[in-house]
């Protein structure tokens, strides 16, 4: 078996090439000084051109600006500002012409619990954006999965703020390491699609800081270049006009953010002066797009009238130029070489530059297998030993001679669906729909990968054109093995993209296309049924997960274009699964304690009264045992935890323990650290505050150390407006999931 760390390092070496790109990063201070000098030389018109999008359909990118047509010489440096290209994002390039990689979305990277993979994906995405001449990557999306049906939750890292913060940090560090600006979105909180253009999220200060804000805070720590404000209102004021969020005294600037705030596309609903004075530095796409926008057409007049000071306009332009200079985008940055207005990539402006590399493909495959979560595995072997001839369960052996592949989720997806928005669930599900989708042109579906791999040792029969409840079981009956596929999908609300009646948010948690019935019907006739779920979030499983004929279940999420090969790697054991659930799976939405508001007109108020209690935090507090809990996932081997030692003070903590691979396969364990705050703190019983990914050969052991920072042991104190370490006893829980705690200790702060 190949060590996952070895592969990561290999991909890493291939990917980390900023030196050869020939640009020099500047410090923030140097960049601000250069930007200031440049802005001082600009005319009013030139400044306005810098802060206003050029119009939704007038750009070769998803967004752009009109830079000054002349160059400036400042401090001996030639400053020639190009049209700044903004593009989706976040899971690779959307609308960038052909020859791009279909990366997995963030929810699958979260399921790896692997910082190296999070970072490497960022580097690879950055390389592709740079190769197409895109200056600003519209990602990462860090919206918390407040409710499992939220349409765009898969674009982010799930319901846990710590995991989301680590994901955001690593992604940004990776993307920006190759000189591409990242733009964290959407501030927020922005947690459902229905009524998003005007709903009001009412959230208290502490909940906001500790949950929804946390990944933005980590983004600022990662020196993110830009940040996108959301469509909806927050505490009664539109996000892009919300000084409490984006103003000089607001969350963002007091955290030390030095880049610029850009509106979501059409998310400006007020006057130019309202938005500019609240802290919005750039409006995109610049014109009115049915839902809002176009307000900076009035900015020049607002400056002339004195409603917006020229000093504020200068600050806006400086904040836009600063990250561009900081990342050295003034030095040999590639020209824009595609046309976002041409989803087919056939127009002459689309050079279809090939930004795919073998290393990117290998990385996508690796993330796909590292994010596959093995939920069940009843492996029995004919001679009763762990290594004997396999008759049922995983990993599969080549002694399995007849294999049925069932379910339309196994077949190639519709590659021509929705003009760059992937607006259908037709074939295997590798990513959701909407602006967070990517080109899915090179997808390798499960049926192709399984058929290729099994050549020479097994025969494959399939029924995959629809979820046919007669045909599927008929093919499965009498086979050594049936692999049954089912999926669930969601996406972004748009004007036309209602997919099978789902307006972005999922209508319910169910599998699509009778997937649950298909699984049950196949399991009824084949006593070695392996279930593969491709989904954007939790789906009900309790009606079939304990069926004795279901020998294994893999929750593969939304794995990106190498879905088939990454699954084969796990099925036949080239990769020992180490994915862990980045959310809890339960049948009933009520177990999550939140809901999606569907049918209220006018715009609803969403009260975030659940506070800090989302997902496992809520279930824990209510004594709800989900079907599979947060952080859960099996391996082909087993691990033992021992010898916990804790060194901690009120300013930091360091927790060590010994991890041993006690099984017969090499494999990666994901030890997790949950913190129990002093009871006076009013926190959930256990909150995630650390994790690692540790590869161990069979029989090997290692001392693992997880550090906790002062902020990670703090709560937000609304009175002092500071992070405060509560005094008292902290419990430390080390385990293999939120409920599978193996070691417990404590310290006093
Ligand atoms: C709207 C989406 O909310 C945002 O995430 C995206 O970046 C823009 N459209 C541009 O496509």
UniProtKB/TrEMBL annotation:
Domain Fibronectin type III-like: 669-738
Record InterPro entries: Cellulose_deg_GH3, Fn3-like, GH, Glyco_hydro_3_C, Glyco_hydro_3_C_sf, Glyco_hydro_3_N, Glyco_hydro_3_N_sf, Ig-like_fold
Top-level taxon of the source organism: Eukaryota
GO molecular function, one term: hydrolase activity
E.C. no: 3.2.1.21
Keywords associated with the record: Carbohydrate metabolism, Cellulose degradation, Glycosidase, Hydrolase, Polysaccharide degradation, Signal
Catalysed reaction, written as an equation: Hydrolysis of terminal, non-reducing beta-D-glucosyl residues with release of beta-D-glucose
Family as reported in the entry's similarity comment: Belongs to the glycosyl hydrolase 3 family.
Protein name: beta-glucosidase
Lineage: Eukaryota, Fungi, Dikarya, Basidiomycota, Agaricomycotina
């Amino acid at each position: 078996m190949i060590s996952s760390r070895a592969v990561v390092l290999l991909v890493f070496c291939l990917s980390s090439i900023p030196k050869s790109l020939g640009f020099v990063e500047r410090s923030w201070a140097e960049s601000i000084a250069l930007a200031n000098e440049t802005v001082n030389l600009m005319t009013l018109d030139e400044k306005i051109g810098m802060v206003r999008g050029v119009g939704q359909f007038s750009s070769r990118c998803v967004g752009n600006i009109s830079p000054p047509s002349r160059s400036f010489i400042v401090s001996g440096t030639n400053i020639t500002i190009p049209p700044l290209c903004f593009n989706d994002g976040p899971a690779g390039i959307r609308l960038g012409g052909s020859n791009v990689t279909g990366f997995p979305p963030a929810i699958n990277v979260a399921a790896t619990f692997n910082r190296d993979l999070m970072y490497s994906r960022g580097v690879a995405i950055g390389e592709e954006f740079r190769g197409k001449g895109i200056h600003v990557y519209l990602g990462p999306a860090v919206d918390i999965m407040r409710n499992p049906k939220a349409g765009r939750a898969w674009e982010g890292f799930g319901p846990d703020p710590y995991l989301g913060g680590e994901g955001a940090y690593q992604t940004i560090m990776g993307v920006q390491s190759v000189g591409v600006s990242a733009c964290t979105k959407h501030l927020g909180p922005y947690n459902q699609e229905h009524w998003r253009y005007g709903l009001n999220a009412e959230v208290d200060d502490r909940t906001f800081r500790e949950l929804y804000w946390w990944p933005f805070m980590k983004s600022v720590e990662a020196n993110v270049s830009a940040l996108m404000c959301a469509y909806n209102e927050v505490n009664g004021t539109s996000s892009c006009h919300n000084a409490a969020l984006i103003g000089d005294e607001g969350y963002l600037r007091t955290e030390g953010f030095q880049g610029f705030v850009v509106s979501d596309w059409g998310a400006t609903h007020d006057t130019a002066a309202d938005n500019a004075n609240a802290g919005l530095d750039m409006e995109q796409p610049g014109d009115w797009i049915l839902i809002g926008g176009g307000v900076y057409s009035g900015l020049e007049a607002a400056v002339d009238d004195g409603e917006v000071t020229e000093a504020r306009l200068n600050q806006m332009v400086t904040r836009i130029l600063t990250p561009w200079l900081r990342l050295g985008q003034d030095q040999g940055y590639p020209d824009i070489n595609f046309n976002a207005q041409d989803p087919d990539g056939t127009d002459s402006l689309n050079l279809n530059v090939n930004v795919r590399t073998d290393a990117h493909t290998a990385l996508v495959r690796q993330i796909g297998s590292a994010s596959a979560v093995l939920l069940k595995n009843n492996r029995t072997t004919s001679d009763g030993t762990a290594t004997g001839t396999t008759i049922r369960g995983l990993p599969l052996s080549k002694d399995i001679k007849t294999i049925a592949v069932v379910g339309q989720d196994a077949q190639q997806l519709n590659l021509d669906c929705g003009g760059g928005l992937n607006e259908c669930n037709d074939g295997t599900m590798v990513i959701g729909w909407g602006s967070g989708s990517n080109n899915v042109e090179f997808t390798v579906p499960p049926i192709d990968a399984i058929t290729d791999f099994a050549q020479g040792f097994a025969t494959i029969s399939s029924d995959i054109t629809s979820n046919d409840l007669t045909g599927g079981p008929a093919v499965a009956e009498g086979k050594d093995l049936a692999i049954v596929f089912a999926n669930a999908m969601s996406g972004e609300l748009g004007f036309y993209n209602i997919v099978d009646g789902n307006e972005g948010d999922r209508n319910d948690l169910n599998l699509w296309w009778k997937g649950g019935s298909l699984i049950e019907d196949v399991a009824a006739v084949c006593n070695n049924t392996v279930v593969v779920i491709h989904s954007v979030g939790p789906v009900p499983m309790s009606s079939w997960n304990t069926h004795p004929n279901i020998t294994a279940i893999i929750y593969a999420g939304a794995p990106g274009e190498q879905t088939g090969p990454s699954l084969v790697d796990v099925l036949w054991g080239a990769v020992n699964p180490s994915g862990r659930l980045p959310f809890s799976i339960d049948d009933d939405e009520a177990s999550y304690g939140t809901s999606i508001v569907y049918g209220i007109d006018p715009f609803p108020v969403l009260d975030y009264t659940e506070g800090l209690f989302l997902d496992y935090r809520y279930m824990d507090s209510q004594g709800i045992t989900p079907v599979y809990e947060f952080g859960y996932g099996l391996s082909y081997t087993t691990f033992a935890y021992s010898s916990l030692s804790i060194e901690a003070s009120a300013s930091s903590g360091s927790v060590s323990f010994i991890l041993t691979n006690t099984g017969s396969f090499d494999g990666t364990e994901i030890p997790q650290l949950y913190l129990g705050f002093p009871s006076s703190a009013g926190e959930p019983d256990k909150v995630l505050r650390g994790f690692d990914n540790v590869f161990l050969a069979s029989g090997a052991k290692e001392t693992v150390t997880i550090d906790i920072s002062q902020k990670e042991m703090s709560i937000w104190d609304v009175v002092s407006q500071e992070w405060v370490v509560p005094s008292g006893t902290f419990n430390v829980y080390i385990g293999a999931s939120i409920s599978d705690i193996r070691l417990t200790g404590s310290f006093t702060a």
